Amino acid sequence: MAELIEISGASYAPSGVPVLDDITFSSSARRIGIVGRNGSGKTSFARLLAGLIAADRGSVRVASADVARDRKAALGAVGILFQNPDHQIIFPTVQEEIAFGLLQMGQSKFDAAKGVAGILTRFGKTHWAGAAIYRLSQGQRQLVCLMSVLAMQPKVIVLDEPFAGLDIPTAAHLTRVLAGVDATLVQITHDPASLQGYDRVLWLEAGRVAQDGVAADVLAEFSQAMQQLGEDDDLSDLAR
Ligand SMILES: Nc1ncnc2c1ncn2[C@@H]1O[C@H](COP(=O)(O)OP(=O)(O)OP(=O)(O)O)[C@@H](O)[C@H]1O
């Protein structure tokens, strides 16, 4: 049987620069972490998994959908939350923003309005419906993004460090919301501690899979390697 996430020999090399190289990863685990150093390809992996960029070689499927080519199916299969909500939000009000994804999925205006009302009710935020997004705090804007993703009920949600810029209580609140979500989470992070209780971890290095396996094992090796690098001076080398 196919796994929920099926990535096979995927490479991504915009203008000839190899950013992701021959990535093969398949999993139906519920909680997946992606770790790696700056520039190792984590964000590109997230975008590839969400179908926002297409692999030059290989294939990327989520819930059987070819996410880069079948965008309508992809919206129901995988959602993504970025670090900066302002890179995601395009509409002036909360209800328009949440409705957008539902309309993109092919829902009627009536059904999309019902979906918006449903998700706002679930989060106790019906009074936000007509609110101007520019007046919300960054944490509130991130919650709008999260509600927009959840309204589409994707099977997989990719988190590209969405709480990195938030204060501790706001991050804790949103982390709690996510912990209760009935979807597979793929979380990109620099912080192994935020992957506590996760099932599987993929460690990327220079666009390739460095390790992939049981979360506790991979995280232990990753943490040790990062600590070792921190003790060395590896900032000296300039890229060729
Ligand atoms: N469209 C592109 N064209 C050229 N180079 C790119 C492109 N996209 C990404 N890169 C390069 O690929 C490498 C990996 O980038 P990516 O943002 O995926 O890494 P990352 O692991 O998320 O990094 P960070 O932890 O710093 O956010 C970087 O060197 C980046 O500059």
TrEMBL record:
The record's GO molecular-function terms, alphabetically, read: ATP binding; ATP hydrolysis activity; ATPase-coupled transmembrane transporter activity
SMART domains (UniProt xref): AAA
Q: What is this protein called?
A: Biotin transport system ATP-binding protein
Q: Which Pfam families match?
A: ABC_tran (PF00005)
A single GO cellular-component term on record: ATP-binding cassette (ABC) transporter complex
- What protein family does this chain belong to? Belongs to the ABC transporter superfamily.
Q: Which InterPro entries match?
A: AAA+_ATPase (IPR003593), ABC_transporter-like_ATP-bd (IPR003439), ABC_transpr_CbiO/EcfA_su (IPR015856), ECF_ABC_transporter_ATP-bd (IPR050095), P-loop_NTPase (IPR027417)
Which residues belong to any copy of the ABC transporter domain? 5-231
Source taxon at top rank: Bacteria
Question: What does the record give as the organism's lineage?
Answer: Bacteria, Pseudomonadati, Pseudomonadota, Alphaproteobacteria, Rhodobacterales
Keywords per UniProt: ATP-binding, Nucleotide-binding, Transport
